[in-house]
TrEMBL record:
One of its GO terms (molecular function) is serine-type endopeptidase activity. One of its GO terms (cellular component) is extracellular space. It is found in: Secreted. The keyword Transmembrane helix does not apply. This is Peptidase S1 domain-containing protein. One of its GO terms (biological process) is proteolysis. Pfam families: Trypsin. Residues 49-340 form the Peptidase S1 domain. CDD domains: Tryp_SPc. Keywords: Disulfide bond, Glycoprotein, Hydrolase, Protease, Secreted, Serine protease, Signal. PANTHER family: PEPTIDASE S1 DOMAIN-CONTAINING PROTEIN, TRYPSIN-RELATED.
Amino acid sequence: MEVMFGCDNGFYHLDSTFTQQRCINQDTFVTPRCISECGKRRPPKHPYIAGGKESDIEVWPWQAGLVQTNGKEGGLICGATLIYDRWAVTAGHCVTKENRPNELVNKKQLRLVYGMSLTHMTNSAIRDDELKDQFGVSSIILHRQFNKDTLDHNIALIELETPMEFNHRVGVVCLPATQDCSNQRLVEGTKGVVTGWGAPDSHSPSDRLRELTLYVANTTECEKHFKDRGYNTAALTENMFCAESNSTTEDTTDGDSGGPFVVQGGFADWVLEGIVSWGVLKNDVDTDIHIHSRKHTEHTKHISLDGDPFLVAPNCPGRVCYSGYTRVAKYLDWIQEKTGRSTGKRCA
C-alpha cells in the first residue's frame, strides 16, 4: 500500500521531507504532521494616509487583539501576535491588574481575537457567547521576572482553548531562530513594521488595522534622548531595544501595547523581533508628561509606566522620536519551555 501526504498550500507544510511512504508486509510508519507556515503575508494594497498606512488583517495575519469582556468596560486593551496554532505573545503589563501588578487579570474575561476587523472583534467577542469556544483563553503565562516599574521582561504568553485554523486572514509570524540571528538583524537602521488599531485623528481606535515603518535606533542616542528629558534610563535594559521614526510628515498614531514589531528576513519571511512595550504619547517638552493607556492615564516623568503607547513616537516634527520594545530573541528558551514548541532552525 502506498500513501501520499500533503497539506493545504500556502498555510501549512509537512514536518517531514517524505511526502510518500509505502507499507510492505504490515510495516508501520509515522504519519507526518502539517505545521503552519510562518511569516507569510499578502502584499500591501492600501495607499499611505495620515498617521501611517491603512492596512488589513490579510496583510498582517498574525495580528491579534486582546479584548476584555467585563460589561461596559469591555473592549480592546492590547495587541498580541500569533506564534503557534494555540499560542500568542503579548506584553506582560497587558495581562496584569492595574493596581496589583503581580496578579493576572481574569482569563475568563479575556478573548484573544484574530482574523477580523476591530469593530467585529470587540462587539462579537463581548456579546457573542458562541465565540467563547473559538477565542477563549485557556491560560496566561507571565514571565516570572516581569517588573511593572521598569517594564523589564515585559512579555507574556496567551494560550487559546481551541487551536486556530489558518487561512488568508489567520497565520503565524516566525520567531527568531537564535539570539545570534536576531543580533545580526537588529542593528542600527534596520527597518521594521509595527501594526495595531491606532487612532490617527481621535482617541478612539481605528476599525482598520494600521501599519507604520520604524527603524532600529542607536541605543546610546535613545538613552540620551530620554535622560536629557529627565526620564529614568535605567528602564533601558539588554532585554529591550529602541526604534525611531524620523518622518516629519506622518502624524501621531496611538498603537496597541503588546503588538508586533516585525522585520522581513532573508527568505522573505517576517520575523517577530519586538513587542510594543513603552513610550511617551504627548510632546515631551513639558515638565509633566502625559502617558496614555486604554486602561488608565498617568502623569509621570518615568518612562517605565506605559500601558498603551503609540505606533510612531509622539508628535515631534523635525526631530527623531523613540519608543521601546521587548527583545523577543531573549526569551526563545522561555517560549519553548512554556509552549513545548521549537523555533525555526534557520536564520530567516
